[in-house]
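Data deposition worksheet. Section B asks for the primary sequence of the deposited chain exactly as it was used as input, without tags or linkers unless they were present during the calculation. Section C holds the resulting structure in token form. Section D is free text for depositor observations; keep each observation to a single sentence. Incomplete worksheets are returned to the depositor.
Section A, Depositor: J.P.
Section B:
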Amino acid sequence: MYGLLLENLADYIKSKYGEDKWEEVRRQAGVEQPSFSTHQVYPDCHIPRLAQAAYEVLDVTEQEFFDQMGVHFVGYVSQYGYDRVLSVLGRHMRDFLNGLDNLHEYLKFSYPRMRAPSFICENETRQGLTLHYRSKRRGFVYYAMGQIREVARHFYNKEMRIELVREELLLETVHVTFQLTFDNRAFTLASLTMTREEKHLPISASVLFEIFPFCIVFSSDMIVRSIGNSLMVILPDLVGKKLTNWFDLVRPLIPFKFQTILNRTNNIFELVTVEPVLTERQSAKRSNMLVLSDEIETDFDEKKLRLKGQMIYMDNWRMMMYLGTPVMPDLRALITTGLYINDLSMHDFSRDLMLAGTQQSVELKLALDQEQQKSKKLEESMRKLDDEMKRTDELLYQMIPKQVADRLRTGENPIDTCQMFDSVSILFSDVVTFTEICSRITPMEVVSMLNAMYSIFDTLTERNRVYKVETIGDAYMVVSGAPEREHNHAEKVCDMALDMVDAITDLKDPSTGAHLQIRVGIHSGAVVAGIVGLKMPRYCLFGDTVNTASRMESTSEPMKIHISENTKELIALEYK
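Section C:
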């Protein structure tokens, strides 16, 4: 699957729901790439995973999501110039629908590994038509519906109603029948026949087969009756044989039968030989070569002859004529199939296109390689940027609560983040005889001791879901009830205090080897909380509750928890 579809999905979510929703969808889907290269192939599982995540994050249904994504696609591709192609594909909406397969053939030059769907029109009336959609990929039915409806509105100024008549799976191919209802007066104009006398211009079969050197004439029993001059050189035994035994029908995705072809003459037909095409010279050369097994498989596919062209029913002959031309991406393909430049038609510029294309292919390949390298570097830079942003967020959330930080990111004034909290619980703690301990040990030992203690306390804050306000020296301050309001803030802080007293026994005084001891004080009451500072912003608490909690700690005893009367009234009986 090419990145163009994934980029359209990302752009649709960003434009309608915002960048944050796209990041949430991407993370939930487990897709690491923050962006996609339009011409790079990605795993087919990306869109189903992203879509499934979008249903949950955006609260939308499958039909709504894919339908609107299809509508968005028509406008999105305009930045790549494809809107000009869409605008000239057909004079009327019916012409556009009949030419959809041709559009995908054109796109294969830019997206050679594309597995294009097939569109076939039938039962056309003035009120609409029946459209058959076939694809090797599942899950894009509503996507196609949105695209077609938006094309009708945007390019042809027509309101179209699309009804899904039937959906079935045939040999790993999704076959969907749509009933399209729209103003199709162009069908009436096309149905009008103009009677005029024409002078018959007789033309011999030899001239016809020279003009169309790769044409195939076959009857209703699929037996080949005549072929063009160039085709006669490389497939001399084809005449009189059954066409289906020599060729496979690649496009459109329909049964390879005479009546089916007769009903689909407005489509481009692509045929490929069942077996590789080898001339006598190539066969002799091949017999004298030792070829590895993987190379044999490659040669087998490359030496098949591909023809692309139009089917025309010749009423006078009661036969079908296939006006095909060989599909040759470069001179190498011409050589592997045993063809020469002079085998191609003169009147349709096939020879000129082959030579001009070969001349430009090297430059284009070099440019493409350079762009792909740039794209890889850009993706790597985007990945590193994403990692750095995650680290920045983690650091920021250690200084400022996530809820407040997100408000500041939106441009909100720091003063506006200040809030009044009627009831919170604040905890202070410090190390007993900390000054004496520091006088007996080195500064590095002091730092190591504090790091070990604070690492344990930080883990306990996450377990008890309280917020660490700050640390100053050996003092440690936490709060519950701010910035998120909690009804059981006193219980959470008391749990934190009990865990701190239990955990400190695992740490020892570096100078004596005795266990460290702490004092803890807790008080509950009203505070004002908000951001202070611009260069180094901090989340701070203000009010008499802070001072009282600090005094509760300073008047506490070693390895004891000193709580105020206010806190005592808020905690449950099991703490008393």
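Section D:
Confidence is low (pLDDT under 50) at residues 193-198, 283-298.
The chain has four domains: 3-191, 205-348, 350-399, 412-575.
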